[in-house]
Model the fold of this input.
Amino acid sequence: MLGALKTNILYKYREDSPNTERIISEHELWLCSPTCFNDPFDCWSIIEESTNEQKREWISQLDDAFIHGINRIAPKVLHQQLNMNKTKEFTDAALASIRVCCFSKNCNNILMWSHYAKEHTGMCFMFDVCADLNFFSFCGEINYVAKASASNVIAPNGAQKLTENCILAKYEGWRYEEEVRKLLFGDSVLRNSQGQAVKFNPQALKKIIFGCRTSIETINKYISLCNENGMQHVGFSQMRQMADGTFGLKEENLNLVHRKD
Done:
């Protein structure tokens, strides 16, 4: 992993859609390029100039897995003069080549349900990281900041700094998301694509939490999908609005006495 996560449980908010159904039917999650993000400041690269010695040393070590992946995707960038503009070009190519799947440490945030689960009509998938350490390798928690930090991407620790300052840093206004990112890079990334599906161990999916507006038809559909795809271990619950007027959500287990195993 990129760093020790403070939780073994991660949540994925989704709306009802064919792609969401594939999480169950195909046991796969979608990882996209940062170029697809809705925030232009997300993965925003600020470049710090490198010395000529750092540039020569960097070029001599192109067997590094991170750099090798970029060399395969954008080889011309690496063989041009590494001035500030070209370094910026390389960095943006590196960022575009990474694939990201976003999770949250939180399952009861009203804004998250509104923004990512189609106004509380969707669902939230609960994953146990320890049940699939292969898929959840290279995960990192987002650091929320007021200002982006510059990265000397050609320095010996350039890839690490780029990850810390750019890929795992985000404007502090997004703090409520409590985001964790699973990263994929290098030879595992499909060329000429904006994203790719990656398989996960079905046992890692522990529960599906439905929104307070999710219809009974949608709930029954996902229960059936789990039954039909060998995922009878998955639990189900639904969020409810607080009865005392508090702006909050309360999770209640669903009574599934008629579920067919």
